[in-house]
Each structure stands twice: as C-alpha cells, then as structure tokens.
Amino acid sequence: MKTNIYLHQTHHTLADFEGIFATLALVFSQNTGLHLFPESFLCGYPLADLVIQRPFIDAYQKHLSEVDQWLKVLPKSESRALCGGLSYQLDETGELQHLRNVIYELTPGVGLKPIYTKRLLPNYDIFDEKKYFTPGEGNTFYQYQGQTFGLLICEDMWVSSFHQFDPCQSMLDEIKERQIKVDAIINLSASPFDVNKRHKRLQKAQNLSKMFQTPFIYINRIGGEDEVIFDGGSFIVDNEKTLCQLQHFAAESKLFVFEPKQNHYAEANRVTPNIWESFFAPDLEKKSALPTIRKWTEEDCQHVAQGLMFGLQEYATKSGFKKFLVALSGGLDSALVLALTKLSLKGGQELEAIYMPSIHSATLSTELCEKMCRDNDIPLKHLPIKFLHSTVKNTFTQSFKESFEGLTDENVQSRLRGLLLYTRSNQTGAMVINTSNKSELAVGYSTQYGDSVGAISLLGDLYKSEVYWLAQYLNKLSPGIIPQGIIDRGPSAELRENQLDSDSLPPYERLDAILEGILSYKMSRIQLINEGFTSNEVDKVIRLYTRSEYKRAQFCPIVKIKSKSFGFGYRVPMSKAISFY
After folding, report:
1. Would you tell me the crossing angle of helices 535-546 and 508-519 to the nearest 10 degrees?
2. Is the pLDDT reported for residue 40 higher than 80?
3. pLDDT, tens digit (0-9, with 9 covering 90-100), for 113-136
C-alpha cells in the first residue's frame, strides 16, 4: 500500500506558539497522510534554561492543551502528524519532576499523546540536554496504514564515545528478536549547520538504511537561534539512493509517496562504522611538509555564504533590526562582511558603511573603500579620527604628564572607531556587524571595545585563510563585489606606520593550521611540533591563545558554521595555569 508522507521542514521563532498552531491547522486542513515535523517543533530548539522557567512552562502547557482540545473536535480522518515536543511531569505542587524530549502523535478526533522519548542526550559543545531531560528507555515501532516505522530523535542516530548505549543497535536487536517487518526508520531532528556535516549526515543515514535494510527518513528544522543556525536539508534515502531532498536554509514542505519494500528483516545485518567522531577531528590535510587547514570546495563556499547570510538575517529579523552598519577599513575582513551583508539584504532593509581613517591609513585604503561602495551602491560616510586621536593624546599628556605610545596608542585609535561606530548606530538604529575573523579572535589580535565591537560576528568562525577563499568565491558569484585590490593587498590593522599582520603573527597558513589543531582539542604542543611547526611559533600561538580568554568571554555572538567554534559551545576558564600545554 502506498502512503502519502509529508516532510515539513519548518521555520518558527522559539516559543512562537501561535505560529506553530497556525501551521498545524493549515496542514490538517489541506492534505491527508502522515505529516512529519522536526524535533521540538511544538516549542522550538534549543531553549536552554527557558525550559525550566515557570512562565514558559505555563505557556507551553496551555499551548499543548489547546492543540489537544482542537484535535479532539476535528472530524476523524486518516491524517496523522508526528511532531517533536516537550513532555513535562509535575508533582501535585506544580514542581518539575521530569522533562522529556519526545515525539507526539497528533490524531484528528482523538488528540495528542507522546509515543517516543529521546534516548541519547547530547552533552557536548552547544548541547546541555542531560541538564534538562530524562532519557527514554525503549524503542517505538509506530503503525500507520499497515506500515511500521521505527522512531528516533536526532542524536539517537549518532552513537559515540560520549554515549554508552546505541539506540539503533537496540532497535535492530528487537527487530530481529521479534521478527518485526519495519518499513522505514524516521528521525526527527534539530541538527545545527556545520560546513562539514551535510555529507556526513547523509552518509550516516545511508549507513543506517543499509543496517536496517529499509529507507531512512530524516526531517530537520531550519532557523537561526542567536549564533546557532539550522540548515534543514531534510531527505529520504534508501541504501545509497536519495529518494527525496529538501532545500537548505529555506522552509519547505514536500510530499513523498512512500511504497514499502517487500523484503522482511535481514538476518545478516551488520552495524556499520560510526562516523560521528570525525565531526570533532582537526580539519587538516597534509599535501606538503606542513599540515594546512582543508581547502574549501566551491560547494563548501556556497553553503558557508548561504549560512552566514541566513544567520545574519535571522538574528536581525528576530531582534527587530532593518538597518545595518559596517566599519569599512580597506582590508579584506570588513570588505567581506560588507559584501555578505549587501547580498543578504531584503526589501525595506538598509546598509551603510563608515570609513574612519587615521594618520596611518594609506591612500589606497580610501580609494578601495570608495570604489567598493560606489560599485555596489552602498552609502559611505567618512569619519576621520585624526583630530580626535590628537585630542585624546594631548589630554592624557596634560593630565598624567606623560604621553602614550606603542600598543596604547594603537588601542586608542581602535576604540575611537568603536565609539564613532556606535554613535552612528544610536543615530540611525542600525545594527553594527563585527568584522573580526577566527584567527584574530583566537590569538587576541583585536582591541577590546574597539574593533571587537558589534551585535553579531559573521567571520568569527572563519580563519583568515577561509576569509580569502570565501571572498574569491563571492567575486566569482558576483563579479567585482569586492575590489581585487583589497584581496591582493597584505593584511594590516594600519594602526602604526607600515604595519603588517605578519609583524606580530606567523603567516596565516601556518597560524590557522596550528589553531585548528588546538581548537579541535585533539593536538598537543608536542604533536604540533612533531608535525613540523617550530617550537617557537607553537609556543607563541599557545601563549597568545591562552592569554586571550577574557577578550573572547566578552565578544559578541558568532554565527556558528563549524563543529568547534568560539561562543555558545566554547567554555574555557579565563584564569588558569598554562604550563600543562
């Protein structure tokens, strides 16, 4: 028997109960079949401490009751929905006893009921699920129109060294023991975007399809939640074949007419090797004497550009901003941020650039800033800091009877720019977009309350090498959006005469590889030296990295595009001994 299965890759703001209810009402009014929604569809994900706050609990419980009552008065039909949601267990005084991440079955004329509880609770990087949830203890085989579907929620398909239990193996064992004919496996997910994940996600699903000898149905949410972005990309695979594929970074619903296979369970099924651990391996390759970070393909660049623009728009829209402000310097980082923002603009949104030259700014910087804004029809304002800088310097000399030089002088220039940038932001209500990259952030090569300011960081998860790759990709996609002169010139903060980044840091191709080894938590000082890096450069990078925690702790949210990023999932003490490195 053929079954209509609808994959709903949905997009809602966290706790948008009205919008969620409206989506359900629309779905049940239109199409008969089995409707599949992502993990935590009924509330949003991740909710963090919101799930244990009383106002949220009360509002969610009311929402769940309204959905249940609405379903009960609907005419009975063949339609069903499987939705991710929360299940609260409260005691007689209303205190929380247990909270479960579950799949609800929604049945017209009957109501809703939880039918499966997530068994593996991720507790690494951005995930804190063991803090909130009670794990499930059994498999669920869901019956619909004479067909049987095994149910999983997100992490349940990703057994690893973090977990002592494998729900997929448990399900397979029960299938064999009870001789159950399973027609497909369904996984409802809220899986964050990672530039390396899309292929591994598909590969893992194909492995599980082979393992169960049945199609694997994967439904993922989309949306930006502060710095975490969800890319969708839902699919159905049968062995190596992709039967259905939804878009990335776009809400979409798609009908798939499902026809079960005729074969029964297979006695010879073997558990395939798990690839989960590779998510957190250093993303390095060795094509020469020294390792380098893996070069992005054009497809990688496309997905990263989509993810960054999507994350920016999600953050701005959900925060109520329609105007954007970028400090343009004549360097590549700010130019790439300006280009991404320009390409992401929607109707009714505005973008403005500010150029704030100092006495050390090159004439070429001015010319390149003007060219980029002129060619892309972006308003550009000039706000020189020469006289402000002189005034501050004279004031300190008069007050303290001594002048400031060196790093202090450089930081004053950067902080004056931050002051002017936010003064303009206050005038226009524009959101300031940070322009720092991951290499700089890792070694503290930025000024606190200066060039580190911003509401959100687009490049904070891109090493400097990746900034170049993405800029070159955008220029291929939109020729001339970044003047070639900006890409070709040497990187410099222009805070002193003839300054170059290479005066303070190892070459970026070496620095980025060392940082990737450190930030993956997989490579020690000795291992990096054994790979061919000098002890001096490794020690310098480690020293700069460890001494910069206080800066990162006060940095703005970073759009996360990798498995290991600074920000929400990075938790390292600011004060510590570093001798163990």
Report:
1. 60
2. yes
3. 999 999 999 998 889 999 999 999
Tokens of 531: 């790979």
Domains and CATH numbers, the chain: 3-280 (3.60.110.10), 312-499 (3.40.50.620)
Calpha distance 41→367 (Å, rounded): 50
Give the dihedral of Cα atoms 154, 157, 161, 162; nearest 10 deg: 20
Phi, psi angle pair for 552, to nearest 5°: -65, -30
Of 98, 144, 152, 145, the residue nearest 120 (C-alpha): 152
pLDDT at 314: 97
Other C-beta atoms within 10 Å of 389: how many? 18
User: Which residues are catalytic, by number?
Assistant: 39, 118, 154
Confidence band of 31 (pLDDT split at 50, 70, 90):
confident
Bridge partners of 102, per DSSP, are 85, 117
| Helical (H) or strand (E) element with 116 | strand 111-117
Nearest to 158 by CA among 194, 191, 196, 117: 191
Do residues 40 and 154 lie in contact, with contact meaning Cβ atoms separated by under 8 Å?
Answer: no
Give the residue from 369, 343, 336 showing the smallest Cα distance to 438: 336
**Do 128 and 52 touch, CB atoms closer than 8 A?**
no
Phi, psi angle pair for 88, to nearest 5°: -95, 140
Q: Retrieve residue 527's tokens.
A: 């291992």
Strand 141-144 and strand 34-36: the pairing is unpaired
Nearest residue to 258 (alpha-carbon basis) of 204, 214, 201, 212: 214
pTM of structure: 0.93
Quick one: residue 550, left, alpha or beta (phi over 0 = left, psi -120 to 50 = alpha)? Answer: alpha
* Amino acid identity for residue 320 in this structure: G
β-pair type (323-328, 431-434): parallel
Share of residues in the chain with pLDDT > 90 (%) = 81
Q: Which helix (H) or strand (E) holds 355?
A: strand 350-355
| Cα–Cα dist 10/222, whole Å | 6
Q: Which two tokens stand for residue 289?
A: 């004497």
Q: How far is CA 443 from the centre of its chain?
A: 22
Q: What number of residues does the chain have?
A: 581
240: left (phi over 0), alpha (psi -120 to 50) or beta: alpha
> What's the rounded mean pLDDT across residues 534-542?
94
Task: Tell me if 420 sits within 8 A of 428, measured CB to CB.
Answer: no
- Integer distance in angstroms from the first to the last C-alpha of the chain? 62
**What distances in angstroms separate CA 96 from CA 54, 64, 99, 100, one per listed residue?**
10, 17, 7, 11
Residue with tokens 């590969």: 203
Label residue 112 exposed, middle or buried (CB < 10 Å: 0-12, 13-18, 19+).
buried
